[in-house]
Amino acid sequence: MKKLLACVLAGALMTVSVQAQQVQPIDGIAVVVDEDVILQSELDRAVANIRAQYAQSSQQLPPENVLERQVAERLVLLKLQVARARDTGVRVSDQEVDQTVAAIAAQNGATVEQLSGQLASQGTSLSEFRDSIRDELLVQRLRQRFAQTQVSVTEAEVDAALESQQAAGGQYRLAHILVGVPEAATPEQIQTAQSKIEGVKSLIDRGEMDFAAAAARYSDSPNALDGGDLGWRSAGEIPSAFAQLVRNMQPGEISDPIRGPSGFQLLQVVDVRDPAEATEGGMVTQYQASHILIRVDDTTSADEAKARADTLHARLQGGAEFAALAAEHSQDPSSSARGGDLGWFTRDQFGPDFGGQVAALSDGEVSAPFRTQAGWHIVRRTGTRQSDAGTDNLRAQARESIGQRKLEDEWDRFLREMRGEAFVDFRGEGEQPGAATETPADND
Q: Which GO terms describe its cellular component (predicted)?
C-alpha cells in the first residue's frame, strides 16, 4: 500500500507543484494532445516541481529548454494514457479518490483538511489535487490491465532464471544513460551521438558530475529524471550483448560507451546482491486453484461481465465441468489453456482481493462470482500445503522480476506506438520542447 501511495503521489506531483505559488500562471496552451491540451500553467507547475525535487542540487538539472522538453513529454504521455484508460472502460470512483487522498494526508501526518490548507498555501486547490490523483490511478489501472492481458510468465522461464542466477551468482542493480540515434541515421548523426556519450563519460570520470546527475541532464531515456535507474536484474534478464560485461563489473563501476539498437549507452552497476538476501525463511501456506475470469473492458461493462459470471456459476452448480468452462470462457490467456489452473501460489501473489477469496474457501469448494480490478472471477480451490518460504520466495522473486522486465519492454513499446500515433503540437514560443538538446560541450 505504501509503495502504491508513493507512486500515486509522485505522479500527481508532476501536475500539481509543491511550489506552485512561485509560478505565475499563463493563460495559454502549451501543447495540443489529440483532443486534449496541456496548459502553459500546467507545464510551468510540473517544471517547478522537478526543480523543487532538485533544490539541493539544481546544478544537476539540464538547461531550461531541455528540462521543459523532458517534462512536456511526460505530460503528453500522461494525457495519452489517461485518455486510453477512459476509452477502454477503466474507471476510478470518487470514493477511491477520497480514500487515496486521505491515505496520502495520513502518511504526511495531516488530516485532509490540513492537506487542503497546505495545498492552498502553495497555490493549488484540493480539487486540482484530486484530479491529479484520479489521473494517476487511471494510469496505474491501465498498466495493470495491460500486464494481465499482455504479460505471462511460465514455470520454465522461472526455472531458467533461477539456473542463470545460480550460474552467475548474483543480481545486479543497473542504471544507464542513453544517447539516442534515429532509425536510418546518417554517419554524421551517429558521430554526433558518439561524441556526446564520450563527452558525458569524460565529465563523470573527471568528477564534475555523478552518474545520476548526468542521466538527468543528458540521457534521452524516459527514466532520465530518475537518474537512469533500471532496477534489479538477474544475469538472465540482461541483454546478452551486455551480460558478460556486467558480470565483470564492480559496484559503482561505469562501462565505456556501448552501441546498442537504440543508440549509445553508458551502464553503471549500482549494486550487486545474492538473491537469497532478498528472501526470508520459514514456512508459508500455498494454495492450488483454478479460476474463470470475465474481464471488464471497453466491450464488456461490469454488469455484463457479472451477468456472464453468474451464468457460468449456475452451470457449475448444475454439474458442468470447471476445466471445460474455463477453457472455453475464461479470458485469462495464461491459465485458460490449462482449464483455468493457476498452479501453487501464496495468498497475496495475485493481489489481496483474490487471495482473500481463495483463503476463505475449503479444498474442493467453488466460490461465488467476485470482483477484482481484473474483472469477475469464479475460483475453485483444489489444494493447500505448507512450503519453505526461502525457495518459494526465490521463485516468486524470479517470476516477478521476469514479469516486470516483460512488462517494461511491452509497456515501453505500447507507449512509443501510442505517442507515434498521437497528434501532438507544441505551441510554446521559440524552440519546441521536442527539438531541445544539449551536449556536454555546451557547458564547458
A: outer membrane-bounded periplasmic space
CATH of domain 156-277+396-419: 3.10.50.40
> Quick one: CA dihedral 204, 205, 208, 210, positive or negative?
positive
Give CATH for domain 283-389: 3.10.50.40
Positions of the chain with pLDDT lower than 70, given as ranges: 1-27, 56-60, 165-169, 236, 240, 275-282, 297-299, 388-392, 428-439, 441-444
Tell me the CATH class for 2-150: mainly alpha
Say if residue 216 is exposed, middle or buried (CB neighbours under 10 Å; 0-12, 13-18, 19+): buried
Helices (H), 248-368: 302-317, 322-329, 333-336, 352-360
Alpha-carbon distance 155 to 260, whole Å? 30
The conformation of residue 330, written as its DSSP 8-state character, comes to: -
Tell me the pLDDT tens digit for each residue of 104-127.
Answer: 888 778 899 998 998 888 778 889
Query: For the CA atoms of the chain, what is the radius of gyration?
Result: 24
CB-CB contact of 47 with 150 (8 Å)? no
